[in-house]
Amino acid sequence: MTILPGPDCTTMTEVRAGVDQVDRELVALLARRFAYMDAAARIKPERGHVRDEARKAAVIANARAEATRLGVPEAVVGDLWERLVEASIAYELAAFDRR
């Protein structure tokens, strides 16, 4: 099935196919992001360097700004990124401990 851009969809089947495709792409992007967490755990000299509140705030602010630029709900993106960053920190701590 050809995946249509959202504005071109005329049926729920087309919408669902597009959403499913975007979800696959998002999971692939998350896999790439978590690979960076593996690298960070390998590079950082101490476990105490994993959590960086200033960096966390900057990452979330950047995501919110990009959401605003793209016209999507900034608060929703901020909430998602809060969870994503916390999950990334937990993942990185576990990766650090495995090392």
Automatic annotation (TrEMBL):
User: What Gene3D superfamilies does this protein map onto?
Assistant: Chorismate mutase
Q: Which residue range or ranges hold the Chorismate mutase domain? A: 6-96
Q: What class of enzyme is it?
A: isomerase
Mention one GO molecular function: chorismate mutase activity
| Isomerase among keywords | yes
Its Enzyme Commission number(s) read 5.4.99.5
Q: Name the domain of life this protein comes from.
A: Bacteria
The alphabetical list of record keywords is:
Isomerase, Lyase, Pyruvate
Q: Which InterPro entries match?
A: Chorismate_II_sf (IPR036263), Chorismate_mutase-related (IPR051331), CM_dom_sf (IPR036979), CM_II_prokaryot (IPR002701), Isochorismate_pyruvate-lyase (IPR008241)
Q: Entry's SMART domains?
A: CM_2
- In this chain, substrate is annotated as bound at R16, R33, K44, E92
A GO biological process this protein is involved in? Answer: chorismate metabolic process
Q: Which SUPFAM superfamilies match?
A: Chorismate mutase II (SSF48600)
User: What's the protein called, per UniProt?
Assistant: chorismate mutase
